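C-alpha cells please, single chain.
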Amino acid sequence: MTRTCTICTHPERAKIEAALVTGTSYRDIARQFGLGKDAVMHHGSEHVKAEIAEHKEARDEAQALDVVKQLRTINYHALAILSDARAGNKPDLALKAMDRVQRQIELQAKLLGDLDERPQINILVSSEWLTLRAAVLRALLPYAEARLAVAAALTTVEGGTSPCA
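Here you go.
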C-alpha cells in the first residue's frame, strides 16, 4: 500500500511548494519545515514538477532579458563616448568606442538569435558535386533523352547554371 505524501498533508504545504518553485534547496526546505530531504525531493518531482519547470523557464527568460538590457546600457554609454570622442577630435578614442559598439551589437545579435554563425556550404560549387554531376551526365551519354531530362532537372535545381559536361 502506498504512503500518503507527508507534504501534501502538511499544514504549511503552500509555503513548502512556494520554496520548491523558487528554487530553494531540498535540504534547506527540509530543515526549515522539519521534514526529510527525500520527502521534499519526492514531492517536488512528483507533485509540483510542472510548476517548478514553469517557474525555471520564466526565471531563465527574465535573466536573458536582463542580459539584453545590460547590453543596451553598455551600447548607450559606448555611443556616448563615441560622440564625445568625435566632438573632442580624439580619433583613437573614437575608434575604440566604434570597436566596442560593433562587438556589443554582434554579441546582442548572437544572444537574440539574429546572427547565425554556423558554416554555410554551397554544394553547387564543391568539387565533389561537380565531379558527381559530370560523371552522371557522362554515364547518360548513350541515352540522349535521359541525359537531356537529367540535365534539365539539374539546371532547375542549380538555379539556372548549365550542368552539361
